[in-house]
Amino acid sequence: MLEIAVSSLTYEAFEDNNYERLFANAYLDGYRNIEFNCWYADSLTSERMQFLKKQCEIHKLKPIALHVSGFGGNSQEDLSLNTAHKLRAIEAAVEIGCRRIVASACSDSRSLALITYELESIASLAEQKDVLVCLENHCNSILSTSEDYYEVLTGISSNNIGICLDGGHLEAAGEEIHTFIDKLGKRINHIHLKENRVFNQKSFCRFGNGGTDNKYMIEYMKTIGYSGYMSVELSPEVGETGDSVNFTDSDRTKPIELYSMLEE
After folding, report:
1. Alpha-carbon separation of residue 238 from 62, 196, 232 (angstroms)
2. What are the tens digits of pLDDT across the range 49-93?
3. Domain boundaries along the sequence of the chain
4. pTM of the model
5. Closest CA to 246 of 3, 21, 59
6. What CATH number does the domain located at 2-262 have?
7. What is d(CA 124, CA 128) in angstroms, rounded to the nearest whole number?
8. Contact 5, 64 (CB under 8 A)
9. Residue 156, class by beta-carbon neighbours within 10 Å (0-12 exposed, 13-18 middle, 19+ buried)?
10. Among positive and negative, which fits the CA dihedral 264, 193, 9, 134?
11. Distance of CA 122 to CAs 126, 144, 147, Å?
12. Under a CB-based contact definition with an 8 Å cutoff, are residues 229 and 31 in contact?
């Protein structure tokens, strides 16, 4: 199985809201699978999960992942809070009816060892609940390249702990997609589709305007047996004005035009 999905980021940018634009437009745009960005204080309450589940039923959409705030930190307090947060995210995923949580490293995290510890602490519950933990690479963070993942994942044997590969972020960090897949392809359990213009520089852009070969990334992953979702992230950080932008309908549907033929 390989299906296209879309993140709520594509519709809501970084706003803390009830996903009104997503529910009004995603189905009409051609999307059926939704990755919810849940980065705020009330994002993972049981009440919010029931609301999102009901709205998905009404709008004929399927929740496939919860994208939550990051792993890591710099203190025992950070460690405790973030571990408890990820344990709650796993429970929330079960409540809404999906089996993936996605998170990158905290922007201020300075210790890969703390991320490893958090992953080890949540692995048992992830296995019990049959939820995949998808650790996303971000440029300009402590977790951006294959070397970082080697350090974090070495010694973690759980099949429920893996990698969310974001090709745009990877190229922005200066690593080739094929190099990353050759090293860690079997640990990849989720994929983000994003476009970046300039290699080794964060320069996100609209789909079709960059240099990131997402089609190649998906086809290469298929050769090693990848099964799951390719989730569209149309980033508001396109850098055209220095601020978030309002994307057009064609901006949001362009990824379907480019990548839906890869579904199977």
Report:
1. 27, 9, 14
2. 999 999 999 999 999 999 999 999 888 899 999 999 999 999 999
3. 2-262
4. 0.97
5. 21
6. 3.20.20.150
7. 6
8. yes
9. middle
10. positive
11. 6, 22, 22
12. no
